[in-house]
Amino acid sequence: MNLHICKLHPNAKIPTYATDGSACFDLYAATVNSAKNIGDVVYQGHPVTVDTGLAFEVPPGWMLKIHPRSGLKFKHGVEAFSGVIDSDFRGSVRILLESADDHEYTPPLRINPGDRVAQASLVPSPRVTFTVVEQL
User: Distance between CA atoms of 108 and 27, rounded to whole angstroms?
Assistant: First the structure.
């Protein structure tokens, strides 16, 4: 399957698969909290917004599902907000990174432009109709 993408920012990186067996492709930071040259530290109570600088042409009947990277969660307690990009959205995809960890056991995470921040996959999203019934 071919997915059309548009680079909306000069720092935008084309998504990649880490390995041949990867189920999801990696998304990279183009900007961090609107800064294109400097990063920020994600810590409890201080979420960081990352812009991928990419727009995706998700086909009708599909959605782009944003997934957290397990390595960020296990190593730093940081998780990307799981989100859905609808087929009619053409704006830049942004990722919200949050930490529920006080970093007592994990080092804080500094996110910089160019870093891998989340994963994504295309998921079928069939349109359904609804029928009201008296009992299920």
Answer: 20
Q: Record the tokens describing residue 75, joined without a space.
A: 């190593």
Distance in angstroms (rounded) separating the CA atoms of residues 94 and 52: 6
Ranges in the chain, pLDDT < 70:
101-104
- Please give the helix or strand (H or E) that residue 51 lies within, else none: strand 48-51
pLDDT in tens, 56-77: 999 999 999 999 998 888 888 8
The DSSP annotation for the chain comes to ---EEEE-STT----B-SSTT-SSEEEE-SEETTBSS--EEEBTTB-EEEE--EEEEPPTTEEEEEE--HHHHHHHSEEEPP-EE-TT--S--EEEEEE---SSSS--EEE-TT-EEEEEEEEE---------S--
In this structure, which amino acid lies at residue 46? H
Angstrom CA distances, 135 to 53, 87, 130, stand at: 48, 33, 14
